[in-house]
Amino acid sequence: MTAPTAFRGLCAAESARLSALSKADSLFVAPRSLSGFSEEGAGVPRLVLVADNPGAKEFEDKEYLSPRGASGRIARAFFDLACGEVGTFGRLVMVLNRSSRHTPRTQGLEELVRKEAGTPLGAEIEADQRAFAAFAVQAARLARAPVLEIGGGASAAVFAPWREAFALARLPGDPPAHKAPHFSHSQFFRTNADAARNARIQAYLSRWEPKIQGLRTPSDSVSSKALLESGVGAAAADFLASVIFGGTT
User: Fold this and answer.
1) Which H or E element spans position 12?
2) Which of 57, 60, 121, 176 lies at a C-alpha separation of 20 to 30 Å from 202?
């Protein structure tokens, strides 16, 4: 069995799992884009992107990082620019979540997990996280694509099952796994408490600020607006490679 064939079979099985879960409880969201990777002739992604859990727009559209949400619009525009192709989500970028359970905000999932601890729903939410984590590892392995986690929830506890299952499923030689801030409020592009990340951002700005007007913000962060409106694919690709993938894997 070739890697693309095995990859399509893996995606079909995961899509079926999520579809069955969402039919039993509509607040679990099965993303439409995942089934596309299981279709005959579908390629494998260059990146497995993992976000938190589906919010309002994701629930309505049945699509993670919905293009109708601010975070989804920025994320899609960024990866289109970085990859040099329009419509990268669902083709070059596989978009997953740590949890398929919808809450209007991630903090709501944290409250739900705490409230439903020890109940059948609590167990289902945990099992979903563990299954999603195992799938993310297997998908990245077959696609030979890195994993990029963004966000992480209001507290470490809310996605603890995902993180534990993800770590347990990984094997030596698997593609690298990276972490980055969420696209929400352009955190993905901003400096924060991580000194090493901040240093990478400053080095990036020193390379690209002379070429892209308005790239540096007053807080010495990268202006997502200036970067995306510039249309300079090499600058977006460099940000992904040097700032996001340049950290610890």
Assistant:
1) helix 3-24
2) 176
Q: How far apart are the C-alpha atoms of 189 and 32, rounded to whole Å? A: 28
Q: Are 239 and 79 in contact (CB under 8 A)?
A: no
* Cβ 29 vs Cβ 48: under 8 Å: no
- pTM for the model stands at 0.95
The 10s digit of each residue's pLDDT in 179-217 is: 999 999 999 999 999 999 999 999 999 999 999 999 999
Segments forming the whole domain that contains residue 215: 190-249
**Beta carbons within 10 angstroms of residue 176's beta carbon:** 12
CA angle 7, 13, 16 (to 5 degrees): 140
Residue 156, sorted as left (phi over 0), alpha (psi -120 to 50) or beta, turns out to be alpha
> What's 80's domain CATH number?
3.40.470
Shared domain for 58 and 158, answered yes or no, is: yes
Q: DSSP letters along 21-52, please?
A: HHHH-TTB---HHHHHTTSTT----SEEEEES
Q: Cβ distance 31 to 95 under 8 Å?
A: yes
Total domain count for the chain? Answer: 2
